[in-house]
Write a structure and sequence with these properties.
Layout lengths: L5 E9 L2 H12 L2 E3 L5 E5 L7 E5 L4 E8 L2 H13 L5 E2 L2 H7 L3 E6 L5 E6 L16 E11 L2 H11 L3 E6 L2 E5 L7 E5 L4 E9 L2 H13 L4 E7 L6 E6 L5 E6 L13 E3 L3 H4 L14
Parallel strand pairs: 1-4, 5-8, 9-12, 10-17, 13-16
Antiparallel strand pairs: 1-5, 2-3, 3-4, 6-7, 7-8, 9-13, 10-11, 11-12, 14-15, 15-16
């Protein structure tokens, strides 16, 4: 059973928050919401925010995961320390900036943070994007990793996820009934590779495809369909180093069921059932 209840937000430190914010609303289709001083927050579903942007001299990246209560956070910190991670407790100011009650964080080598938060803020109002991109929710994150084995152990042994499938040496991790929420791709760097949002269906994904083309946003993978998860996908470049993507129609299954992971080749037939190619090294055959 996963001890992570859900993915909560991605936090990006960027050189030009205004430029990134314009992309988040005008292109991606998120809704800007009330934010603490010093950050900008963007909403995609019932979460108060799934994307947080702040100014930074050097790029920074973080993914937050949610646990249920302070006792779960304390137990998680023990598990992380036992696994060899340096755990840092969040200060009151850091919790206020994330609109959560408590938090702690670790860093993946010299790469992104993983933040564990308790009682982050939700919204009772309906999400309404700046444009109708058909977004349903903040869906998942793909990582570029210099140590796939270590990161897989983090998401399975510590966070309680399950290996869904393998794509070459890449690993897909499930934390609920979705085929996967986390993808870990072998790379020469440690980074958040892609932030993914689920859209209503294939119709909306293809509408977004043509909208992005008309807005001259570089598309770097798809439209396609992943043989592993049966997701239709579309990946495109943001204004910073992190990619963004839309997914839809992915497979669902009982997280508690015994579903042995399958091995797919890291080749054209394993990457896309429709035959699309990618300019991203981690996604390329």
């Amino acid at each position: 059973m996963s001890v992570v209840e859900k993915l909560r937000y991605v936090r990006l430190g960027v050189a030009d928050p205004r430029k990134t914010g314009d992309f988040a609303t005008r292109i991606l289709g998120l809704q800007e919401v009330t934010s603490p001083e010093g950050v900008a927050m963007y909403r995609s579903d019932n979460r108060h925010a799934s994307l947080i942007v702040e100014a930074a001299e050097a790029p920074t990246e973080a993914l937050a995961v949610q646990v249920r209560d302070p006792e779960d956070l304390e137990a998680m910190c023990v598990r992380l320390e036992t696994a060899g991670y340096t755990v840092t407790a969040g200060t009151a100011a850091e919790c206020a900036a994330r609109l959560c009650k408590q938090m702690a964080w670790i860093r993946l080598r010299n790469g992104p943070r993983i933040e564990v938060v308790v009682r982050p803020l939700d919204s009772g109002w309906r999400y309404h994007g700046t444009r109708d991109a058909g977004i349903v929710e903040f869906f998942g994150v793909a990582f570029a990793s210099t140590d796939v084995a270590a990161d897989t152990k983090l998401w399975t042994d510590v966070f309680g996820g399950k290996v869904a499938d393998y794509l070459g040496d890449a690993v897909y991790i499930a934390i609920d009934d979705a085929h996967h929420r986390i993808a870990i791709h072998p790379s020469g760097r440690d980074a958040i590779l892609e932030v993914q949002y689920e859209v209503e269906g294939l119709h909306q994904l293809m509408q977004n495809n043509y909208f992005l083309q008309s807005a001259q946003v570089p598309i770097c993978a798809g439209p396609g369909r992943r043989p592993t998860s049966d997701e239709a996908f579309l990946t495109f470049r943001g204004p910073d180093a992190v990619l963004f993507g839309y997914v839809t129609e992915g497979a669902r299954r009982d997280f508690t069921a015994d579903c042995p992971p399958r091995q797919f080749p890291h080749s054209s037939e394993g990457l896309c059932a429709w035959g699309s190619t990618s300019t991203v090294p981690e996604y390329s055959a």
